[in-house]
Structure formats: structure tokens, C-alpha cells
Amino acid sequence: MDEHDRAVLYIAANRFPFPDQVDWPADYITLTNQSSERRGVPGPAGMEYPDIVVIDGRGEIREIGEVERAVTDECAERWARASTACDNKTTSGVQHFFVYVPPGQDIEALRLMDLYKISHAGVRTWALAPDGTVTIDPIVTNGDPKDHRAR
After folding, report:
1. Which CATH number goes with the domain that contains 37?
2. Which of 58, 63, 92, 116 has the fewest CB atoms below 10 angstroms from its CB?
3. If pLDDT is split at 50, 70 and 90, which confidence band does 135 have?
């Protein structure tokens, strides 16, 4: 399994929801698309499959998390579509959309979010240690303050 897929699985299991989160709706299901395409978002060339998609019991998309290897303008176009597909049931009213980028690429991710006016709940960095441990550092949290934590 490559670093990206390891990070996706870790983030999905430990942040959607957090292990100690008590307010996660009982009917929410966290899906990942790295090993098979399970839930997508329409794009200009067909369905696009974000790394992490949270759906409710009716199958509606609630939250999306994208785990990037590198930040580019093409990412921002996908992010905009993914953000629009999410709900905005955050305390601040922003979309339930999170982006995870390698350390040092957070400034570019934030610049693109601003440039493309992408509503998002948070930007985080992710890194994989030599022992396989995934670290997450919250950079910006626009959604719910409770989501601003490292893990």
C-alpha cells in the first residue's frame, strides 16, 4: 500500500469520525475510494471519486475529504466540485469539505481555496513517518472548532 492510500485509510478511520466523537450521526457511513470507486461527484469528464466520502442513511453526501500528494490548480477545480457536493451543517455554515496536503503545501492550498472561493471546513497537513505512523496537523478550521485537533 502506498503512502497516499495509508493516509486515506488512517484519516477516514480516525477523523470521520474522531474515535471519541459522541455527536457523529448514527446513520453516517464513511467510504473511501482508493481501492474501489464507491461514491463519486459529477465532473466535466464523468464521475470523480474523492478520497473520503461520508454519506447519510439516505445515501446523501454529507462530508468529503481529499488527501493530496501535491497541490496544483487542477486540485482546486476538483475541490470546488467536491465542496459543492457537501452539506453546510457546520457551526459557521461552510461546506463540510476538508483538504489534507503534504507539509509545506498548506499555503498554496489556502491560496487556491481563496482564489477559487471554495467553501471548506478545514485544511490540514498529513505526513507519514518511517514507522508508518500518520500525523495530521490542523492548519485552518473554518467549520466546527471541535475539528481543530491533531492526531
Report:
1. 3.40.1350
2. 58
3. very high
If one counts the domains in the chain, the total is 1
Residue with cell 478511520: 13
- Which set of grid coordinates corresponds to residue 31? 467510504
Beta pairing class for 46-48 and 52-55: unpaired
Set of cell numbers at residue 36: 474501489
Domain hosting 15: range is 3-147
Bridge partners (DSSP) listed for residue 123: 99, 140
Whole-Å CA distances, 121 to 36, 58, 100, 133, 146: 26, 23, 11, 24, 11
Which of 70, 84, 87 is closest to 117 using CA atoms? 84
45-52: Cβ within 8 A, 24+ apart: 48/78, 48/81, 48/82, 50/78, 50/82, 51/8, 51/11, 51/12, 52/8, 52/11, 52/12, 52/16
